[in-house]
């Protein structure tokens, strides 16, 4: 059911909007706002004295007196643009008023303007400067009041007037100081909020970057190995297609099986990326490879034509899930590089060492290097392996072996990231 808004509600909203726009306009123009405030106070103060003149015939409000009454409010216009100039102008106007008509000093001084200047100094200037401004204003005021002693004002009355003015000035000063502290506190909180927001954005950006690197590593590890095997086996099948059809058929069968495996693993990754880990059904996804999957990896590599020896040393113990996956991916990438670079006569070895203080995985080969199959080298393998090792507090070393061939070795602390330990 739709109801029409009452007319008075619409008017209130429009009035509030107009008032908000006016406040913003004045906030951006402080000097204009101060001038308007000075004019408004001057007109109102002069109007008050004009009303008194009508009620009190003996009080003659002529133009000179009107100017003396209105002039002190000019200092308000200078309170933020030129505070000290305003102080000097106010004291000068007060001196002229005393010289012009001493009997009327108390009614024509710069009282309101001085209070505004005192507040401004306390609210916007340093404590030292604010105290100097207050002294520069209220010391002359006390002198002017005491000059009236003997001209209708006794010493006690003058002292009371001085004390009243100083108490009011101290009150105004305290209000300005409280406003200053509150403003600084708000600015500090705003700065903290801004810093926290920037830090949150930086953390979010870092999380996105980390996730992008993780996805890149997974895609590289999954695709690079299988595509490299497909590339090598298809090249071999092409060479022996006419001379040894049985070998070519066996190679093509390996290509077919490898392609299916690559597609299945790619599907699993894309499913997790699209639905999230919580939404992706466990039945739809293959389990993540672990250290126990190395035997199958070695067998697959042998089927691709690379002789591989698999060795396990030490008493086996469970590894954290992340470390176990990292070990498998490092071995997978190292064997992929061996297939691509070691040459046709190369042999490889995978050593898994369950040490007392650290876990070590080594993948070496006896190759002398071979041309890379066109299109099957992206240059990101070693970077990805090192990132995986570093992520779990491990280290990775790689390079040529002294007796020939190439060695990749990763080490992980035995107790690294024990949360979520599985085999």
TrEMBL record:
<feature type="domain" description="Histidine kinase/HSP90-like ATPase">
    <location>
        <begin position="324"/>
        <end position="414"/>
    </location>
</feature>
<feature type="transmembrane region" description="Helical">
    <location>
        <begin position="63"/>
        <end position="78"/>
    </location>
</feature>
<feature type="transmembrane region" description="Helical">
    <location>
        <begin position="106"/>
        <end position="124"/>
    </location>
</feature>
<dbReference type="GO" id="GO:0046983">
    <property type="term" value="F:protein dimerization activity"/>
</dbReference>
<keyword id="KW-0547">Nucleotide-binding</keyword>
<keyword id="KW-0902">Two-component regulatory system</keyword>
<feature type="coiled-coil region">
    <location>
        <begin position="179"/>
        <end position="206"/>
    </location>
</feature>
<dbReference type="GO" id="GO:0000155">
    <property type="term" value="F:phosphorelay sensor kinase activity"/>
</dbReference>
<dbReference type="InterPro" id="IPR036890">
    <property type="entry name" value="HATPase_C_sf"/>
</dbReference>
<keyword id="KW-0418">Kinase</keyword>
<keyword id="KW-1133">Transmembrane helix</keyword>
<feature type="transmembrane region" description="Helical">
    <location>
        <begin position="83"/>
        <end position="100"/>
    </location>
</feature>
<protein>
    <recommendedName>
        <fullName>histidine kinase</fullName>
        <ecNumber>2.7.13.3</ecNumber>
    </recommendedName>
</protein>
<dbReference type="GO" id="GO:0005524">
    <property type="term" value="F:ATP binding"/>
</dbReference>
<keyword id="KW-0812">Transmembrane</keyword>
<dbReference type="InterPro" id="IPR050482">
    <property type="entry name" value="Sensor_HK_TwoCompSys"/>
</dbReference>
<feature type="transmembrane region" description="Helical">
    <location>
        <begin position="31"/>
        <end position="51"/>
    </location>
</feature>
<dbReference type="Pfam" id="PF02518">
    <property type="entry name" value="HATPase_c"/>
</dbReference>
<dbReference type="GO" id="GO:0016020">
    <property type="term" value="C:membrane"/>
</dbReference>
<keyword id="KW-0472">Membrane</keyword>
<keyword id="KW-0808">Transferase</keyword>
<feature type="transmembrane region" description="Helical">
    <location>
        <begin position="131"/>
        <end position="149"/>
    </location>
</feature>
<feature type="transmembrane region" description="Helical">
    <location>
        <begin position="155"/>
        <end position="179"/>
    </location>
</feature>
<keyword id="KW-0175">Coiled coil</keyword>
<keyword id="KW-0597">Phosphoprotein</keyword>
<dbReference type="Pfam" id="PF07730">
    <property type="entry name" value="HisKA_3"/>
</dbReference>
<feature type="domain" description="Signal transduction histidine kinase subgroup 3 dimerisation and phosphoacceptor">
    <location>
        <begin position="211"/>
        <end position="276"/>
    </location>
</feature>
<keyword id="KW-0067">ATP-binding</keyword>
<dbReference type="InterPro" id="IPR011712">
    <property type="entry name" value="Sig_transdc_His_kin_sub3_dim/P"/>
</dbReference>
<dbReference type="InterPro" id="IPR003594">
    <property type="entry name" value="HATPase_dom"/>
</dbReference>
């Amino acid at each position: 059911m739709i109801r029409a808004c009452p007319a008075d509600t619409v008017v209130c909203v429009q009035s509030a909007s107009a008032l908000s726009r006016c406040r913003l306009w004045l906030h951006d123009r402080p000097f204009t706002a101060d001038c308007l405030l000075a004019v408004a106070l001057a007109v109102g103060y002069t109007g008050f004295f004009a009303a008194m003149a009508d009620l009190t015939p003996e009080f003659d409000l002529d133009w000179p007196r009107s100017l003396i009454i209105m002039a002190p409010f000019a200092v308000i216009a200078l309170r933020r643009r030129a505070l000290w100039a305003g102080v000097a102008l106010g004291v000068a106007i007060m001196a002229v008023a005393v010289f012009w008509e001493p009997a009327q000093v108390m009614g024509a001084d710069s009282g309101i303007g001085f209070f505004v200047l005192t507040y401004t100094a306390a609210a916007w200037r340093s404590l030292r400067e604010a105290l100097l401004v207050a002294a520069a204003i209220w010391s002359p005021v006390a002198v002017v009041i005491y000059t009236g002693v003997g001209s209708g004002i006794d010493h006690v009355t003058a002292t009371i007037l001085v004390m009243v003015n100083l108490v009011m000035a101290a009150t105004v000063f305290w209000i300005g100081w409280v406003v200053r502290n509150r403003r600084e506190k708000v600015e500090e909180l705003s700065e903290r909020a801004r810093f926290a927001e920037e830090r949150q954005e930086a953390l979010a950006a870092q999380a996105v970057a980390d996730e992008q690197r993780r996805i890149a590593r997974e895609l590289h590890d999954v695709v690079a190995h299988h595509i490299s095997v497909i590339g090598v086996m298809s090249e071999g099948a092409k060479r022996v297609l006419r001379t040894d059809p049985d070998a070519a058929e066996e190679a093509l069968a390996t290509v077919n099986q490898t392609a299916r495996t690559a597609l299945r693993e790619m599907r699993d990754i894309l499913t997790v990326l699209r639905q999230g880990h919580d939404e992706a059904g466990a039945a739809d996804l293959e389990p993540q490879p672990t250290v126990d999957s190395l035997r199958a990896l070695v067998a697959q590599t042998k089927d691709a034509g690379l002789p591989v020896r698999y060795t396990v040393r030490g008493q086996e113990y469970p590894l954290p899930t992340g470390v176990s996956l990292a070990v498998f991916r490092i071995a997978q990438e190292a064997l992929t590089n061996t297939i691509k670079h070691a040459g046709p006569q190369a042999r490889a070895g995978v050593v898994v060492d369950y040490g007392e203080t650290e876990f070590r995985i080594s993948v070496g080969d006896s190759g002398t290097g071979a041309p890379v199959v066109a299109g099957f080298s992206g240059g990101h393998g070693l970077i990805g392996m090192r990132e995986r090792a570093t992520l779990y507090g491990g280290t990775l070393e790689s390079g040529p072996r002294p007796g020939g061939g190439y060695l990749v070795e990763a080490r992980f602390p035995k107790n690294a990231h024990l949360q979520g330990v599985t085999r």
